[in-house]
Amino acid sequence: MSPDTSPILRVAGVSKTYAETVAVKPLSFALPAGSVTGLLGGNGAGKTTTIGMVMGLIEPTTGTIEIFGREFLKDRYHALGRMNFESPYVDMPHRLTVRQNLTVFGRLYGVRGVADKIEELAGDLALKEFLDRPSGRLSAGQKTRVALAKALINEPELLLLDEPTASLDPDTADWVRAHLEDYRRRRNCAILLASHNMAEVERLCDRVMMLKEGSLVDDGSPAELLARYGRGNLEDVFLDVARGRGNGAAA
Amino acid sequence: MSASLEFSLARVGAMTLRYSYLLRSSMPRMLEMMYWPTVQMLTWGFLQTYLLRAPGGLAGADKTTIAAGSLIGAVLLWDILLRGQQGFSFSFLEEMWSRNIANLFMSPLRPAEFVVSMMAMSLIRLLVGMVPVTILAIWFFGFNLWALGFAFAAFFAILIFFAWSVGLFVSGLLLRYGLGAESLVWSLMFVIQPLGCVYYPVAVLPSWLQPICWALPPTYVFEGLRGVLVDHALRLDLMIYGLALDAALFAVASFAFVRLLAAARRAGTLLQTGE
Q1: Spatial separation of the C-alpha atoms in residues B68 and B230, rounded to whole Å
Q2: Is this prediction's ipTM beyond 0.85?
Q3: Cα–Cα 20 to 30 A to A46, which of A196, A230, B199, B252?
Q4: Nearest CA to CA, how far is A90 from chain B (Å)?
Q5: What residues are paired with A220 via a beta bridge?
Q6: Burial, A83: exposed, middle or buried (Cβ in 10 Å; 0-12, 13-18, 19+)?
């Protein structure tokens, strides 16, 4: 019997318009299990809006989103227990300790043996020394690790990451990326990653979608994009796309 | 059954646990929950004492009504209404202040479970804030709210359901319009105070205003309270009307909450829960 190759996430013709402003023009893509797809673009390119629509927090103006084979907007609770997300724009209650926050989210996601799971995550993500500290008293790097623990507490099959290493020092950012790579390998999880950190996208993603002013302007593996634009790194490709020059699909 | 209609007590428990962690983490907040009801009770209690003792003061029916404890009884019930709504809304505001709304609405938590957990917290906050005040009222003024028995249970039910309806509606506005709508949490219920006839009978209001008063469930409670204290009889008809109005208003508030949540998803405000 051949393995199930149907995508975990399928986005078809999804767009978002706020009054007169078009935030995302019709966009289609699919994420197979075990893949990491990057949404790359400058400020206002539509990355966060796209992730927000896949999270179910923003209703698309047009199009459909299918997650785990079912239409998400009509049956979101079929999928929500099997996915999770991390974003620096969303926080956790500051006065609760890390352990209390993770306990609440573990219970919301129906995790069996929450206390053991928290200990496991604390070991994996080096949280043990501040598990009983209020979340509001953590450094930016510690907060990011806690947010990652919350995102992984239900062992999601679909993980949505919006700028997961924003405002982190290079060492912590590298550490977070390594952990995400490891998690993807172990769980065969599909990851949708919005970022404007080129090194991060180049390292983690096997497919990159370049967004500009709400439109998909190019799409391919990092190697394909580098070859297409004749560049040595994604940062130069990004600048070519942002400034409308080069040999890519939008040129 | 559709997954969206499933209801999990475990998830309600998780949210209640979250709020109880918060409550236990701050002794000043616990004390504040008792502080304002105590100040209110003492102020109105001493005013009641003064009105009864002042030479050339009240006479006749007014004196009978005040002497029966209508002022202090009314202020205690008013605080149940006000603190019940604020206890509900405060839990919701905590999520907005901590930028946690997106985490919750992207989790398997259903809106109905979220609402039930806020109701539970509203009751817990009332328990912490009001029980000591009702005991102080016995000690200071000899007024025992608990001695009203079944009448108190009926008054409480009508007031708390109305408090939750207002809390639910305001929470919907917060979702849609963000923290810009926060002042409604603290101020909206005060519109009810003059129209709900907390301290005086409906009959003293202009006739054109009276139908508006009777459209509000708290009016039935405060009229009922005066009936119990003065005439020693619970008007069951008032209680039934009050509860029926409550049911209708709770249905309207639930509908408004669902519509405002949908509008928030369309406007993208669930990801931007600041001001």
Answers
A1: 6
A2: yes
A3: A230
A4: 5
A5: A208
A6: buried
Query: Which residues on chain B are in Cβ contact (under 8 Å) with A59?
Result: 262, 265-266
* Separation between Cα atoms, residue A165 and residue A175, nearest integer Å: 10
Within an 8 Å CB–CB cutoff, is residue A95 touching chain B? yes
Q: What is the DSSP letter of A128?
A: G
Non-local (6+) Cβ contacts of A9 within 8 A are A30, A31, A54, A65, A66, A67, A158, A190, A192
Which of B21, B99, B108 lies nearest to residue A110, judging by beta carbons? Answer: B108
A1-82+158-169+190-251 sits in which CATH class?
Answer: alpha beta
Q: pLDDT tens for residues B226-251?
A: 999 888 889 999 999 999 999 999 99
- Dist. CA A79–CA A66, nearest whole Å: 9
Residue A219 three-state SS: strand
Q: Give B 13-42 residues with CB within 8 A of chain A.
A: 13-15, 17-18, 21-22, 25-26
Domain boundaries, chain A: 1-82+158-169+190-251
